[in-house]
Design a protein that fits this description.
40% strand, globular, 20 strands
Length: 324
């Protein structure tokens, strides 16, 4: 796999908490940022495959939106085990979470993927607890199910670690009062404000939408050839389907303060979510729904990456592919 490796110099979690506090406090009425020992994320309410977010921390951006727009590149299919090897993950023990596009070639249609895997006795013993969300094009109903394999496609953003317990940044936010509807975009903008383009700070982790209602999109199946290529962002947005789901929701996130040297074509924030009890609620997170900002509450656990990988980077950027 074509892989570019960039070492990072993350700040301490204490500095991170201090830098982010002001930006989050401007957007939410109640905010706390603290460094804590990570709870066992295998337990309720997260139900992740790995216990923690520590050890061998790294982030990867694989493929990208140019593999979907303006014309889907259906040959861009990968396997999470192969990606883990490209990320130099510990072959004995590890875990990966994130957000991406699912194995359309196996489930029969385009879909959203919530990668959630771990291994403890060698990478060939992966425990695959990955979910996917897809939409019935006839009824508009969203269904959420276990992924049938370790395959993914088109674009995917991943946080990997040894899955060990350890210190993490805990963020809670409640009752939005500012204009930023997305919890993770608010964090990302706080990172960008604190470090600008001078330093890339990359985070991965999981959070719960504890209360309130949030909006998610689910990609429908690929358009027929006669409706391609996508020619504008409006056409893209009209193609996506949007759904408002109640809490609780488990959300898996990867985000960055900046693109190193503005040359990697990174996606600055990517979050996919699923209902913890396996109900048919899931997709790409956008933020709280208008009118529900006062009800919204989040609790999240994040860690910094020490290495950033850009894998199978498309030759053409999305900016060059689409015009408004």
């Amino acid at each position: 796999m074509q892989t570019e490796r960039f070492p990072l110099s993350p700040p301490s979690l204490e500095e991170l908490a201090d830098k982010l506090n002001g930006h989050l406090a401007a957007n939410y009425q109640h905010v706390t940022l603290s460094v804590v020992q990570c709870p066992d994320l295998r337990q309720a309410p997260f139900y992740l495959a790995a216990a923690g977010l520590s050890g061998n921390e790294r982030i990867a951006d694989i493929g990208g939106q140019p593999n979907l727009f303006p014309i889907p590149r259906l040959n861009t299919i990968w396997n999470l085990e192969d990606i883990a090897k490209a990320m130099d993950m510990d072959s004995a023990k590890g875990g990966i979470i994130g957000a991406g596009a699912g194995p359309f070639h196996q489930v029969g249609q385009n879909c959203e993927l919530m990668p959630n895997i771990s291994w403890e006795d060698g990478i060939e013993t992966i425990d695959n607890q990955t979910w996917l969300a897809r939409m019935d094009d006839k009824t508009g109903a969203v269904s959420v199910e276990r992924s049938p394999s370790l395959d993914c496609a088109l674009m995917i953003n991943l946080y990997g670690s040894s899955g060990a317990p350890g210190p993490v940044l805990k963020i809670t936010a409640q009752r939005r009062k500012g204009p930023e509807e997305s919890f993770t975009e608010c964090i990302q903008k706080g990172l960008a404000a604190a470090w600008g383009d001078t330093r890339t700070v990359s985070l991965g982790g999981a959070f719960i939408v504890k209360s309130g209602r949030a909006r998610y999109h689910v990609m429908p199946d690929f358009p027929p050839d006669e409706k391609l290529p996508f020619e504008s962002r409006k056409q893209l947005n009209d193609w996506l389907t949007y759904h408002d789901f109640d809490s609780p929701m488990v959300c898996l996130s990867v985000l960055h303060s900046a693109d190193p040297a503005q040359k990697m074509g990174l996606r600055m924030e990517h979050t996919h979510c699923f209902a913890p009890a396996g109900q048919n609620r899931g997709g790409h997170y956008h933020g709280d729904v208008d009118g529900y900002g006062e009800d919204i509450a989040y609790e999240g656990y994040f860690n910094t990456a020490k290495v950033l990988y850009r894998i199978e980077r498309p030759a053409v950027t999305l900016k060059g592919d689409l015009h408004d």
